[in-house]
Amino acid sequence: MKRFRKTFLATLVLFFIGTSCTREDDIHQNEEAIVPAHITDSVYHEAARMTAYNFVYPSKDPRGKGIMLSGTITIGDSVTRQTAALGLILYNHFTVYQADQCPTHGDLMIQSIIAPGRLITISPDYYGFGATGDYPQAYCISRANAQGSVDALLAAKRLLDPMGYAWGDYLFNIGYSQGAQTAMGVVRLVDESYPDLDITYTFAGAGPYDNPETYRQFLSSTITGMPSTVASVLLSYNEFFNLNIPREEMFVEPLLSHVDDWILSKRFTREEIDAKIGSQSISDYLNPALFDTNSHNSRLLLEAMRSDNLCQGWTPRSDEHIYLFHNTQDITVPTENTVNLYHFLSGHGLDNVVLDTADYGSSPILPAHETGAAPFIVHSLDIMCRTLGVAPWISTLPTFQ
Asked: Which residues are CB-neighbours of 72 under 8 A, at least 6 positions away?
């Protein structure tokens, strides 16, 4: 998100490295393409003083079929083959639409902030970007994206060891917006299926954890800060849950005739797509029939969303440490998502869950959803440093309430 990058960097008084990495040739979706994880190329980012290793690894697509996905390992100069990293960070990226905004194509803003802290960062592209860029993204389907993230983490550890790198026992799991949903999806998947993985701390900011509630909130409020995200959720659930809802029963003009070009082509940023849709009023681009939650199509969508709801249906481990953040002025991802998740986690006896919901403001230039990203990162880094027992590696930070 171009404007988001500029504002975020200005806020944090940091730098952004935009060197693009060469994309690996498309790896087709068939069993013959499944090969061991391997490094495809590396790029040294001089300003950030870090090396990015792009890699591909075996995982599953949103329907459970074998696929090769891609990701990036970033290592700052403070970590060498003689100086071990303090630990690992699994970074789950926020909403992107343009093909070159994924980690393997060089969008490494957060990684460049983390790099000075002696932590190795693993960043999956997600299905639909990088090696699978010819396929539609599994937008806000937490189980699919979490599987890709966990597989990226495991593959990266296997690749780093023979490269001569070592690291401590700390494992941080972080994401904002869609990335927060993925981060919490990782917690659920690890708790269900990976008992040997121990996540030290999870940081989740303003994520759509409760998509059925989000759907109902949007239909009742009829407004959202980012119309592209609403359209993308409907497209994704319709595609990957095989709902077979015709597009004309989901959208109206002008969006209806431009779904492929504006959203699925991966040619435009989120801001550009929102500008093309041209309205924050959901009724201006959604089919009126969807506003009846008892209609056939709404019931199909809600049932699919319930099956991937992070606020029900699983048992978190009692020793999880989780920081939940949300700007209360957010109209892109309703705050109810974070509140509902907090109640779900605390209802299962988790004592180490921090709920940070406060008014972090908004502006005509920067929506409240994006405004919350800077304090989320700052607060998360502060908790990381206290957990590691080290001083913050960023000397100049803004003050947030």
From this structure: 21, 52, 53, 54, 55, 103, 104, 108, 111, 122, 123, 125
At 347, list the tokens: 């209802």
Whole-prediction pTM: 0.91
184-194, pLDDT tens digit by residue?
999 999 999 99
Nearest Cα to Cα of residue 179 among 238, 103, 68, 119: 103
167: Cβ contacts below 8 Å, ≥ 6 apart: 79, 84, 85, 86, 87, 88, 120, 160
CA nearest 328: which of 401, 379, 386? 401
For residue 58, which amino acid is it? Answer: P
Task: Give the span between the Cα atoms of 366 and 4, in whole angstroms.
Answer: 8
C-alpha dihedral, 117 to 119 to 124 to 129, nearest 10°? 30
Q: How far apart are CA 48 and CA 17, in angstroms?
A: 7
| Residue from 150, 137, 132, 136 nearest 29 by CA | 132
Q: What is the DSSP letter of 264?
A: I
* Mean pLDDT, the chain, whole residue set: 90
Cβ–Cβ < 8 Å for 216, 293: yes
- Indicate whether 29 pLDDT > 80: no
- What are the two backbone dihedrals, phi and then psi, of residue 226, each rounded to the nearest 5 degrees? -135, 90
Q: What fold, for 2-210+315-388?
A: Rossmann fold (3.40.50)
Give the separation between CA 151 and CA 57, rounded to whole angstroms: 8
Domain map (residue ranges) of the chain: 2-210+315-388, 212-306
Stated as kind and residue range, the H or E segment containing 49 is none
Instruction: At 345, list the tokens.
Output: 């986690």
**Tens digit of each residue's pLDDT (9 = 90 or more) over 213-229:** 999 999 988 889 999 99
The rounded distance, in Å, linking the Cα atoms of 183 and 244 is: 29
Distance, CA of 43 to CA of 50 (rounded, Å): 9
Handedness of CA 232, 236, 239, 245 (dihedral sign): negative
- Dihedral of alpha carbons 340, 344, 346, 347, sign: positive
Torsion sign over Cα 59, 62, 65, 70: negative
Q: What is the DSSP letter of 378?
A: H
Residue with tokens 């509140």: 339
Q: Identify whether the C-beta of residue 60 lies closer than 8 Å to the C-beta of residue 93.
A: no
